[in-house]
């Protein structure tokens, strides 16, 4: 295994940040809980909703099919659009942003080397209209991704696009859709069979937010020319590294233990702050993973626990000029996760000039690379001096292998943390009520009682509407 990530937990400790920091005694008191969580997650690997833990090992054959399909798309189409939402959209977006040119879609075709790429992670009419303004559907391949095959937002996106394709291409419309969904359940699989769409399956036991290493993430990545086998290798190596319950050797478990103590001591917010634009959308992906997995009202014993930690997105250095004031002087309720990169894929020199103005000149002759990493270290220092919990994960460079390791690390970290909290990491009952209310308001069959419930809910008081 290549060591491409470094986990630095120093600044979580009281020895570094003082009274708000974690003590050895607190670590010792949670060690048994962490080891129990590790045993549970390891024993259930590949079972139930932990099917995602098999993905680094069982996607090899399907990866070949995906690469063959992706090569066909790269040859024939100008644009590739993902239709999906939540876990069916955030991984593909994050990987695209991390591993392709930061202005990929603005590059001319020969420099891009693959189709333009869009992910439609919403049902904002302006967003859909704007997509249709910039793409030629006749030269576009659409990948509809939904595990349940029933998500209203994704089905709405699909209905709009397929109708348009049929208007333009008639019975050739089905050559512009690839479905990624459950093999047996849901409506998309029925439609895919009826319409003859090529289909990739989301394996059993793989929920949306844990799906990046199956066709959900692998097909869009392969279409972009990303080496998906190397990503899977990174995930596999992280999985192997975390087979031990020795926290000194298992970074995901150590991070979970520290986060658990932090949550228990009122640190209800985790800020994901990459110091690299390429990792900006990893924060969005992490936010869903962490929020939807850990935000639960009851634990496995039926006890009301209202568990979870609110994830917040930040970007270094941009948010030094926006949020860092709060992080150093506001409430002691946060853990800041700094993501750093040693080697950027570009080096930009800061030229000489204005030698007579020292406040400008001190930058001259250096590089942006040095500036961004110096600012990261300086912010880390400032946070530590202000007694704020922070940790740093450093990537040697952002590539397929390191990203595979990083994403898998966060999945395991989430799984261990859920187990330490004794909650169900894999359900999302809190989003069901809103879904049902939408169905009722839209007049979906079977939701008549819910509609009645909504109609009899307290009405808004005009006096509070100005
Ligand atoms: O993580 C999850 O399970 C959810 O966020 C889903 O990804 C999201 O609701 C979309 O679901 P589906 O893939 O079934 O359309």
Q: Nearest-angstrom radius of gyration?
A: 24 Å
Tell me what the CATH architecture of the largest domain is: 3-Layer(aba) Sandwich
Largest sheet: 5 strands, mixed
CATH topology of the largest domain, what is it called? Answer: Rossmann fold
Query: How many domains make up the 3D coordinates?
Result: 2
| Whole-number mean pLDDT | 97
Number of strands: 12
Oligomer: single chain
The assigned structural class equals alpha/beta
Top-tier CATH class of the largest domain: Alpha Beta
Content of β-strand: 5-15%
Name of the CATH superfamily of the largest domain:
Glucose-6-phosphate isomerase like protein, domain 1
Structural features, described:
This protein has 466 residues and is an alpha/beta fold. The protein folds into 2 domains: 5-45 and 232-421, Glucose-6-phosphate isomerase like protein, domain 1 (Rossmann fold, 3-Layer(aba) Sandwich), CATH 3.40.50; 52-229, Glucose-6-phosphate isomerase like protein, domain 1 (Rossmann fold). Helix content is 46%, strand content 14%. The protein has 19 helices and 12 strands. It has helices at residues 14-17, 24-43, 55-58, 60-76, 90-99, 109-112, 125-134, 152-169, 187-195, 215-223, 228-241, 251-264, 280-294, 324-329, 358-361, 368-385, 400-421, 432-441, 448-455, and strands at 5-8, 79-83, 116-120, 140-146, 177-181, 199-201, 269-274, 296-298, 304-307, 310-313, 334-343, 390-397. The strands form 3 sheets. Strands 1-12-11-7-10 form a 5-stranded mixed beta sheet, sandwiched between helices. A hairpin with a 5-residue loop joins strand 8 and strand 9. The longest helix has 22 residues, at 400-421.
